[in-house]
Amino acid sequence: MGKNINEEQHTGKQEGRKKGKRFARNVLLIGAFLMVFVLTFGGYQTYAYINEAPKLEENKLSLPQSSTLYDAEGNKITDIVGKEHRNIVSFDEIPEHVVNAFIAVEDVRYWEHNGVDLKRIGGAVVANIQDGFGAEGASTITQQVVKNMLLEPDKTVKRKVQEAYLAMELEKQYSKEEILEMYLNKIYFGQGAYGIATAANTYFNKSLEELSTEEAALLAGLPQRPSGYDPYKHPDIASDRRATVLSLMEQHGFISEQERKEAASVPVEDSIVDQQSQSTTNDAFIDQVIDDLEKAGIPENALYSGGLEIYTTLDQNAQQIVDEALTTNKVVEYPDEQFRAGVSLIDTQSGAIKAIGGNRQTGEDDVQKGFNYATQLERSPGSTIKPILDYAPGIENLKWSTNQQFIDEELELNGKEFSNWNDEFQGSVSIREALQWSYNIPAIKAFMEVGGEEAQAFAKKLGISIDETYPAYAIGGFAGGISPLQLSGAYAAFGSGGTFHEPYSVEKVVYPNGKEHQLSSKSEKAMSEGTAYMITDMLRTVVEEGTGMQAKIKGLDVAGKTGTTSLDDGINGEGVSDAWFSGYTSNYTASIWTGYDKTTQNSFIHKEDDDIAKLLFRHIMSEVSKDKETASFEKPDSVEEIEIDKTTGLRANKATPSSSIIKELYFKGEEPKKAPLPKPKKKTSSNEKDEKDDTSTESTKKNSNNSNDKKKSEDKVEKKQKDESIKEEPKAKPEEKKEPKEPQEPERSDEQEQQEPTDQSEENEEPVTDDSANTKADSSEDGEDDANANTGNEENTNNDGGNEGTPSNTGDAEEGGNQEGSNNDPPADGNDEGTSEETNENSANDSENSEVSDSEENTSDTSDTSDQSGSQTSEEKETSSADANQSKEKETTEK
């Protein structure tokens, strides 16, 4: 039994082995099939690439091909470098230690391979798998000669195949020495220098044989990235690069450790000579072209020796305007030669860079490819950041209007006190006013309400990356800073309806083989059109009647913002460290920075010079806009402009004084309520007001107050009987009082209805009586009471957002213009100021004179009572009037 079990186990193991073998065999077969397929297809594709490779031409191999720049109109600007910048030498004239420096850093197995270094390819494959295709190159010196002269510089499989093939072909036709001579005479070293001999003269003012080891190492490190390793602009980076070359020279046995240490100990700044004037034009713009090409994967050496046709966005007329403004005193009087400025001018709708003002020096004083204040600057933007970080995110995310209110008051955060530039506080202000006068406290509060992360994300959509945010960032207190180019790109998004384009300088590149590479910026939606327009409209206010008035241009719709940064502690004087202005029209956006390289007690912007940025903007924008149609900014359908009562924040009505009306922008659906319309007041005598007060009380209380009404009527009748000056004919019996008044009732009603819409005095509505003199004598006092009554009503209206659209209580409101708001005081039930008041006046037998003193005491009460009118219709008023009249007649009869 056990034997059978063992046999079964043995049989199972054999079957398992067979299955494993079958699986392995299948895998091998599939792998073999795939390899055959790949080799077949790859071989065919490789053959196709080789067959398309260009032919080797000696003239192209022996001389570098300068690239040509074209402007936005397709006109040739310049060849980047001319023949005068080349000094050709033979291989025998190049010292051995110079050759060894290049061999060590560029191609250590140069003397061994046949044009392609398989070991180097293996290392590059690993790097590309780990870091992505193109992360590390495997090109030998031979391949670089071919690549620079004959092929487009972008990294593709096709180019690599053709490059390897042509390198091996080149090795067959030329010796190693000849190939190395080609390489060293053609590569670009920066500063306009082609070839090793020209570079030695440019950087050290020496011939090749005079170069020291450290100087040779410095030159050998430049071709890979001439601008990045430029010893004039980046001496520290250049020193590190030189140290790398020296280390490789020691590693491969070209120099000893002692020689390396001695060479590394010499400061880079001490070894190079002063920079020379560069003959090419538009240096600042060319710097940006180089940066944009590198971002697109096109190396700098291809720009200088690849024979490229580069079609840029440059507007030569605009560039000339910018250069003249910066390098002469024709536009502004600069305080001194150390005063710096940087200008970025771009197309508002596309982001295309039209001109760059990188520095104020030119001609003999020009620093060749020196620091570019338009693109390389990193300075605090001051208040120019407020629309980006504080207000636009709130409008976009929280649906603020331009009338959004913040309290401008003393503010302390984390132990730091913040203040405004004028050390004053304004109380409640709108964000429009806060931007107009550049108040800091509302900006910080807006930033805090928006939230740091949301503000950070919004700024990133406009091309401004901020690692972290603090309240001080709301007013431009950045740890690092931004450049005019970055700021112009962000502001252009406001002018283009919320669409952001990263500023770019190159439209397309055409390679020697005819291939084109498009490089224009892609558009990204950063905000809604409504948000962009609201910011634009507020920045219009800044230019029209705010801190940016000096940038105002007649005939152009301009929006913009000023920005300054305060002096550091310890610097005494009235001035600022940085002064900015960033603004735009529908065609152009310009951002301008002014200041000094370092702010000190002897070098800061004095108060009289902090307007230079605004003046430069006005001149440049005026000139580039000449003879060009510039459209005004258009309000999108999503936004409404509404008249607002600035004392309440509600929509203005017909009673709002013009001095209190402002116009603000709101998103549709987010509009404020309309302020209730104050009810028009009749100008009546004190006697009439007293009578109306009694009548209004009677109408409100109706039957529940009949006993009180009867008592009042009895008192009035008793007074009337004692009155000696009676206007009407004497009446023997009280009940006869109703007869002469009945035909007058409709007359009085009509007169009153005609007078109310015009808000005129009603002193002529009643027939002239003996007491009219008393009425006229008290008219001035009554006028004051009416004014007080109206004022009180307006105050209540301004604090009430309800009753919107309630019709007026006058019987003929439509005749006098339909009033859109009612009194904000609660209407009294059944109260009527129209017909019922007149009826009750008539039924009192016109005995007003005896009640003058009482009416004067009750004037204010009468005003308050008259404010409490209900929203009754004309029919209801007539019914109430009739009832009151009948009740009065009945009481008089009984009396």
Helix/strand-derived class? alpha+beta
Q: N-to-C terminal Cα separation, in Å?
A: 139 Å
Specify Rg, calculated over alpha carbons.
Answer: 44 Å
Mean pLDDT: 76
Number of helical stretches of at least 4 residues: 32
- What sort of overall outline do the alpha carbons produce when their principal axes are compared? elongated
Q: What are the segments in which pLDDT stays under 50 over at least 5 consecutive residues?
A: 1-10, 131-137, 363-369, 695-714, 716-879
Key phrases:
about 900 residues, alpha+beta, five-stranded mixed beta sheet, five-stranded antiparallel beta sheet, 32 helices, 21 strands, about 10% strand, disordered N terminus
Please, could you describe this protein's structure?
The structure is a single chain. With 895 residues, the chain is of the alpha+beta class. Helix content is 45%, strand content 11%. The protein is built from 32 helices and 21 strands. The strands form seven sheets. The protein has a five-stranded mixed sheet, covered by helices on one side. The protein has a five-stranded antiparallel sheet with strand order 5-4-17-16-14, with helices on both faces. A hairpin with a 5-residue loop joins strand 4 and strand 5. Helix 3 packs parallel to helix 9, helix 3 crosses helix 10 and helix 23 (686-701) packs across helix 29. The chain is elongated, with a radius of gyration of 44 Å. Mean pLDDT is 76; it is low at 1-10, 131-137, 363-369, 695-714 and 716-879.
